[in-house]
Every structure is written in C-alpha cells, then in structure tokens.
Amino acid sequence: EQGQAVVFSGGVVGRIASVNAYTATVELISSPHFRTAAHFEGDDRPVEFRGGINPGLQPASGQVATVPADLSPSLKDPLRLTSSRLGGVFPDGLTLGWVYSLDPSPDGLFQSGKVFLDPRLQSVREVAVLIPLETRDEDDP
Q1: pLDDT tens, residue by residue, 12-26
Q2: Rounded distance between C-alpha atoms, residue 95 and residue 40, angstroms
C-alpha cells in the first residue's frame, strides 16, 4: 500500500509512493520531499530527518534538524541516526545514516547537520516492504 516502509540490509530505502498492478514507485530517503521522525542510537529524543538535494553521481545525503545541543559527533565518533516509530511508518532502530558534525542553530537550543546515507543505496537490487501487523479500518483517518 502507499506509505509502507521500504528497507534493505543497510537500513531505510524510503516509502511506497504509488502502487501499480505489478510494480510500485518508491520515494527514496534521499529525496528532498522525504521527511520522517528519527533519533540517534542510544538517545530517545526525537529529531527531524529530511532528504537532501542530491546531484547525480555523488553520494546521497540528507539533513537532520532539531538535534539537542548536548550531542556532539566527530569524525572519530560519528552518531548513527535511526528511524523512530513516532514517524508512523518505520519501526525504531533502522539505520537512516551517520552524522559526523553538527552546527548550532541561531537560537542556540538545537543543532542541525548533514546525514551521510549508505553508499549502497545507489545500487540497491533487492528491498523488502514492511507490512504492518495491524490493519487499519477504512473509516479511521
């Protein structure tokens, strides 16, 4: 169904954008229109992930925002950004990407930064679609 999670061995690929008789179109995690709730491994506070503007033939990336000011990744000790069930589509703990540095926001309360996505996303051959165990009623919004 539209909106279902698409994953591969390296983590999140995206979500189903449209469904046809034998195929489906996937909105990739690297798309600038892709947004989801996330959190850093070992930290339950929610942050916002969104895809980036990715020129062709270069590694895909995204952006993370509303990151608490006390988190500080580095090249030696990057932070793993994972999915959050708060987004309503993905379960907790699927890899979205890695963050190596964060910049403070003008208000000083939060940080934002670049998320480096798995380079295997450029050549994925097999994916899995996560189907929820509970079915939604057609009357539910």
Answers
A1: 999 999 999 999 999
A2: 10
